Amino acid sequence: AIQEQKPKRTLQLRPKLSSLGTARLKEDSNLMQQLADACLVVDALEPSVREELIRTVCNKELTAYQQIFEGTEVAKLDKAERRYAWIKRQLRANEDIWQIFPHSWRLPYLLCIQFCKVTRSQLSDILNGLKEKPDVGTLLQALQRTLEFEEELAEKFGGGSTVGRDGESDTEELEADLESNKQNASEIRKKYEKQRAARVGTGTQLNCGSEEARELYASGAGFNFRGMISSCFETHLTVYVELEEKTLMENLEKLVQEETWEAEEGSQTNILSSSTQVFLIIKRNLKRCSALTKNQTLLNLFKVFQRILRAYAGKLSARLPRGMTGIVATATGTDQIKISDRDERVICYIVNTAEYCHETAEQLAENIAKIINAQFADKVDMSEEQDEFSAVITRALMTLVHGLETKLETELAAMTRVPWASLESVGDQSEYVNGISTILSSSVPVLGGLLSPVYFQFFLDK
């Protein structure tokens, strides 16, 4: 009996569906009741009938959207938020209309899925059709509005239920009642819509026949709105990464130029302020990017961070005093480096700063590996950058060693001029010994107070 009603009910619904979304339908309670009753009959038929009806409704609703936002002034990238405002208005305006359809159909939810697919396709065409690189501000604003919209949908459609606790579907129960002919369609509708409304949100998925139906009827928890539209921006975010790198490099240059090469007053870490500022800027960029995407673009930005840190290591190394020739250099085959007391302090600050960067770079990589999508996590590694800072530490400590040797050159030269072979007796302490003691006493305690125990011991061993 139910199957015999299929052609008749379907034919009755098609002309009436043309009234959906109009003021006339909202004002015609009889028409709304007829459509609601007919939908309950359709719900009792095979899934393909219901799917056809849902497609018809969704396509009709989105026809106007496609006409408005394709090839028109409002279809531009900088007006992306108008797309989302449009669908939200439609959902609010047609709240009464959606009541016509059984709750188990979740028609607003399915409409939003189709809206996302159409919008993704249109935005992809816009982005791919750009003759020049997009404006970064416009691109990021459109992406941000898209992410916000996806988040709204994810919160709005968080789950759904179309199956009873005992596993028997509402459709099967409804079909049984219709066949028994004990109640009219209106009474049946009230009974089963009340039951469905009570069960919405339990997260059970409708068992539909076709693969397409399974996709359409997936529960809110099963369908991920996040990334549904925004993922089309991913391949176009290169300009954003390029701008971030340019800005980071400019900031790095400015920080190094303004660096006093003295530890901040009152600081107990004895590191250069430029290093903490570099990582603050990096973390700010990381936070901004991870709010937009955790995919390839975040990995690309991580590679920018690597280049920035290598550049900073180069800046630290370049600040170290350079060597020249001398007696000690000739005798030992090492560089002779003339350094002042201030130079010694600066070198110690560079050692401490490189150590701080070595440790913080590792922490940065660990944090990024945790937030980036799993497929990219194994590519997040700062070991090479850590090696760069380790090399800076080694060069700085050797510079201290050579600098101290250079300070001792005069005394060591005096020692070489002593006629050791002709000495007949040993007298009081020699002048060069007094000189060496004075130099070591003025430098070594200062270095010990600035360097960590590990690196101070390394210096003494050398």
How would you sum up this structure in a few lines?
This is Vps53 N-terminal domain-containing protein. This protein is 68% helix and 0% strand.
- Rg over CA atoms: 37 Å
Mean pLDDT comes to 78
Please indicate the percent range of residues in DSSP E strands (runs of 2 or more): under 5%
Cα end-to-end separation:
99 Å
Biggest β-sheet strands, sense, barrel? none
| Weakly predicted, low-confidence segments | 159-186, 195-210
* Percent helix: 55-70%
Task: Encode the helix/strand succession as letters.
Answer: HHHHHHHHHHHHHHHHHHHHH
Rough outline? rod-shaped
What structural class do you assign from the helix and strand content?
A: mainly alpha
Question: How many β strands by DSSP?
Answer: 0
What's the arrangement of secondary structure elements?
Elements: H1 5-17, H2 23-27, H3 29-44, H4 47-68, H5 80-93, H6 95-98, H7 107-128, H8 136-156, H9 170-180, H10 185-199, H11 211-216, H12 238-258, H13 273-292, H14 296-318, H15 327-332, H16 341-371, H17 374-377, H18 383-407, H19 409-416, H20 431-450, H21 453-461
What does this structure look like?
With 462 residues, the protein is mainly α. Helix content is 68%, strand content 0%. The protein is built from 21 helices and no strands. The longest helix is centred in the C-terminal third of the chain and has 31 residues, at 341-371. Mean pLDDT is 78; it is low at 159-186 and 195-210.
Features:
462 residues, mainly alpha, 68% helix, 0% strand
